[in-house]
Write a structure and sequence with these properties.
Helix 4 runs parallel beside helix 7. By secondary structure, this protein is an alpha/beta fold. It has 17 helices and 12 strands. It has an 8-stranded parallel barrel with strand order 3-4-5-8-9-10-11-12, surrounded by 5 helices. Strands 1-2 form a two-stranded antiparallel sheet. It has a single domain, classed as TIM Barrel.
């Protein structure tokens, strides 16, 4: 019997992953307000390791309190947090699963400032207000840029000291690195703006600083947009990076010694093209608590509250999405893969065996990174290994992603459960001391 390409090991320069299925970056507000981690976080990550993924990419882990996008996510901004992340890694490793920590800084895309950041300006590559929520920001000085570069490097050293398997830098979906990379956002007139090489300067400096701390033999990958689609909702905005821009950036990253590229899309989060699928306005109207966070958050809130206005939102959102949900970033990933020699990961609604196999076999990518499909079926790799697809697949309703603003992260599609009691029991299982429910 021929081997299954989904379960062939993926070899990077200094890391080997047992299969081609990664858990993509997604997580809820499981942790303490000060950035310290909890047992619920450990239970959450163990669910996916036990379910058979080759590697887990952590949620957004801020390199500083000023860089987190919401409170109650574990950070890695001080040495005292190393033991917690070591414990997470050890628990994941028990299941022959690798753990890659995603380092990030929100920049202007800070959903909830929290009490720590209320009096602080939100820093970015630009002073232009974020268009979706209207988050205010100011352009960083050179000294501030250098300070944040140092924060990334110090965080990377903590990742290595915690015994984890690698680092992912989040350069996609509108966070700080995107704010430098994107031609639709970055309007600087100095050496960090303008041409692609200048817009990539901040990221390249972060990579060089990290390499000085962790060496050349520690796994380091970058997540970035294949295409920004910065004008997906607001058609009068700049389009942002094209696939040609991203290819040029990826060539620079490979020359700098990056071990892999992880392809996503969309210049903000959420974005019509990331994640594609439903827009559950009934959930959003209840959990949208950031009314005073930006210039447009109150008007957004009003539109979700009033039934007659909701069709307008849905029309704008769905019109910008495109038709493909599963594998929606594959064309961009394939274009990038043709120009780099390092492995390419792709995210985008994956959960069907044939689509994933064909993508890898046709050299569109080397592995897929899955979030929602694994939330719906934590043991999806084991299901695929049996030659099946899930009986209750993810419906891409996106309720998980919006509930998380106030509620525990989990699948909230009631149609996938026997009843509401089963749904709540499954979602809340990560808070129990025993084995979490799949």
């Amino acid at each position: 019997m021929a081997s299954d390409i989904l379960f062939e090991p993926l070899k990077f320069r200094h890391l080997e992953v047992k299969n081609r299925i990664f858990r993509s970056s997604i997580s809820g507000r499981f942790d303490n307000y000060d950035g310290s981690g909890t047992q619920a976080r450990i239970n959450w990550e163990e669910k996916f390791a036990r379910g058979g993924v080759g590697a887990i990419i952590s949620s957004f882990v801020a390199v500083s309190v000023a860089g987190r996008h919401v409170p109650n996510y574990a950070t890695i901004h001080k040495d005292e947090q190393i033991p917690f992340w070591r414990t997470v890694g050890e628990k994941v490793h028990e299941h022959d699963c690798k753990y890659i920590l995603q380092l990030n800084h929100a920049g202007r895309q800070m959903d909830f400032k929290g009490v720590d950041n209320l009096a602080l300006p939100t820093l970015s590559s630009t002073g232009t207000t974020e268009p979706f929520s209207g988050f205010l920001c100011r352009a960083m000085t050179i000294a501030e840029i250098q300070s944040i570069v140092r924060q990334f490097a110090e965080a990377a050293r903590r990742v290595r000291d915690a015994g984890l398997d690698g680092i992912e830098l989040h350069g996609a979906n509108g966070y700080l690195i995107t704010q430098f990379l994107s031609s639709g956002i970055n309007n600087r007139k100095d050496e960090y703006g303008g041409a692609v090489a200048n817009r990539a300067r901040f990221l390249l400096e972060v990579i060089r600083a990290i390499r000085k701390e962790v060496g050349q033999d520690f796994h380091l990958q970058v997540k970035l947009n294949g295409i920004d689609y910065n004008n997906a909702v607001f058609f009068w905005k700049k389009k942002g990076n094209t696939i040609e821009d991203s290819i040029e950036i990826c060539k620079l990253l490979e020359a700098e010694g990056v071990d892999a590229i992880h392809v996503s899309g969309g210049s903000s989060f959420p974005h019509p093209r990331n994640p594609r699928g439903g827009l559950p306005l009934d959930v959003i109207k209840r959990v949208y608590p950031i009314i005073d966070s930006g210039k447009k958050t109150f008007s957004n809130y009003v539109m979700t509250r009033y039934r007659l206005l909701r069709p307008i939102i849905k029309l704008l959102w769905t019109r910008a999405q495109g038709e493909v949900i599963e594998g929606n970033n594959l064309e961009a990933a394939q274009a990038i893969k043709q120009h780099v020699s390092v492995p390419v990961l792709c995210t985008g609604g994956f959960q069907t065996a044939k689509i994933i196999r064909d993508a890898i076999a046709n050299k569109m990518c080397d592995a897929v990174a899955i979030a929602r499909g694994l939330i719906a079926n934590n043991n999806l790799p084991d299901i695929l290994a049996e030659g099946k697809n899930p009986e209750r697949p993810c419906t891409h309703c996106n309720r998980c992603l919006y509930h998380v603003l106030e509620d525990p992260l989990g699948c909230y599609d009631l149609s996938r459960y026997a009843d509401r009691a089963e749904m709540i029991e499954t979602i809340m299982s990560v808070y129990q001391s025993g084995t979490p429910t799949n």
